[in-house]
Write a structure and sequence with these properties.
Order of helices and strands: HHHHHHHHHH
Strand content: under 5%
Largest sheet: none
Number of strands: 0
Oligomer: single chain
Structural class: mainly alpha
Helix content: 55-70%
Length: 206
């Protein structure tokens, strides 16, 4: 499966494979959940760190897996693979910190990764792991509504398909497309017509 294109056609970027074996089935027993943790922790941590910075990622990712453990009996592999399910939980928790995320992105937009940036707000930009984001891209992302930014970053950073994003966020499939189209137009306008998907992929690799 490849990441769904929302910018200028297929990017050719393959999404990470969903865990197989116990991680794809029911999660009631501790051994199966431990396999999920081992398979997915690093990936989920990287996604959250790129959105909130490493200082806040540890707590959010820990809470993600705590929520997943408490709700493990409710997980239905017929509705979504476990990776998608975890991204959905993590994204909802990131949403509780939407002001922090927007403030971080705006700080990056103003100063880039500048260790001498003045003030505590701008200092967030120094610590954020998404430090490879170009300032103009960071500022453009900050201006997106939270729900649109969630969809954009699940596609661009997590490599989820439209269907997987819909499952992760509990929204209709068509809504994913409409949010991506709206975000694409805003981002491309802010970037002077540059391909936002390419910019985000480079940041993800950074």
């Amino acid at each position: 499966m490849t990441a769904v294109s929302w910018a200028t056609g297929d990017t050719g970027r393959a999404a990470p494979a969903a865990p197989t074996g116990p991680a794809q089935g029911r999660l009631e027993d501790g051994e199966a959940f431990a396999a999920v943790f081992d398979a997915c922790f690093g990936e989920i941590h990287g996604y959250v760190a790129q959105r909130l910075g490493p200082d806040h990622a540890e707590d959010v990712v820990a809470e993600t897996f705590l929520v997943a453990f408490r709700k493990r009996a409710q997980y239905d592999p017929a509705r979504a693979n476990v990776r998608t399910w975890l991204y959905g939980i993590a994204t909802k928790l990131v949403g509780r910190h939407r002001r922090l995320e927007a403030r971080t992105l705006r700080a990056l937009g103003r100063y880039g990764v500048d260790a001498d940036a003045p003030g505590p707000e701008e200092g967030v930009a120094v610590r954020v792991s998404a430090q490879s984001l170009r300032p103009n891209l960071a500022a453009a992302l900050a201006d997106l509504p939270q729900r649109d930014r969630d969809v954009v970053l699940l596609v661009a950073l997590a490599g989820l398909s439209h269907e997987e994003v819909a499952s992760a966020l509990g929204i209709p499939y068509g809504t994913v497309g409409s949010r991506l189209n709206r975000a694409r137009r805003k981002l491309r306008a802010s970037l002077g017509g540059a391909n936002p998907m390419r910019e985000l992929e480079e940041a993800d690799r950074g």
